[in-house]
Amino acid sequence: MCRALPHNVVAIICLLMAALGNNMPALAEDDGQQQLQHFFGDLHSFSADFSQTVRNTTGKILQQSTGTMALQRPLKFRWAYRSPYEQLIITNGNRLWIYDRDLEQLTIKALNNSIGSTPAALLSNDQPLEKTFHIRGDGQRSNLSWVRLTPKKPDTGFELIRLGFVRNTLSVMVLTDSFGQTSTIRFSHLQKNIKLDHKQFIFSPPPGVDVIMDVGKSP
């Protein structure tokens, strides 16, 4: 049986990728909005370590994980979990590969069939962010400048996405879903617009791996 992905990880992946592909709107003179525009406006690639915490509506921790990620325009992404178990997620923009080392299992999906009704699905088109989200500054807390992205359509599966910036660098993403659960991603050692090895975004399964195909029509 395929082990479940950490909460909302595919939506998080596609949200980041989509931000690379959208023209940033002219934003108000809010510090958080300025930093949003500064960070994503000229972004071509970045890599970082991350920690992810999922909490329920009462604040109880449901899941914690750590790993590394890398993103390259156009639409290439690598998300590697180190703990609590090793799992690798790679996309070239068309297909999504999910490799679970412990289970020796690889799932291959068409990317557009994997994101479902999420902000990622809305963001994956060519429209700028303000076409699908209400964007406004959300003040400063914990030494971060915050921006709120609220979906304009009610059937996205998400209520709110919050991005926290420090010195024009993305530091935290917080996604609140329709059930009130929150997934908080904290980035560290982030490097922006660096040259990434294209081999990071190519995956060949090791011998003996169980391969599950769920690609639908080929893109």
Question: What would you note in describing this structure?
Answer:
The protein has 219 residues and is of the alpha+beta class. It has one domain (9-214): outer membrane lipoprotein receptor (LolB), chain A (Clam). It is built from 4 helices and 12 strands. It has helices at 9-21, 31-41, 119-123, 129-132, and strands spanning 45-55, 61-72, 76-83, 87-91, 95-100, 105-110, 133-141, 144-151, 158-166, 169-177, 182-192, 210-214. It has a 12-stranded mixed β-sheet with strand order 7-8-9-10-11-1-2-3-4-5-6-12. It is globular, with a radius of gyration of 17 Å. Mean pLDDT is 81; it is low at 116-126.
Keywords:
about 220 residues; globular; outer membrane lipoprotein receptor (LolB), chain A; alpha+beta; single chain; twelve-stranded mixed β-sheet
Give a brief outline of the structure:
The protein has 219 residues and is of the alpha+beta class.
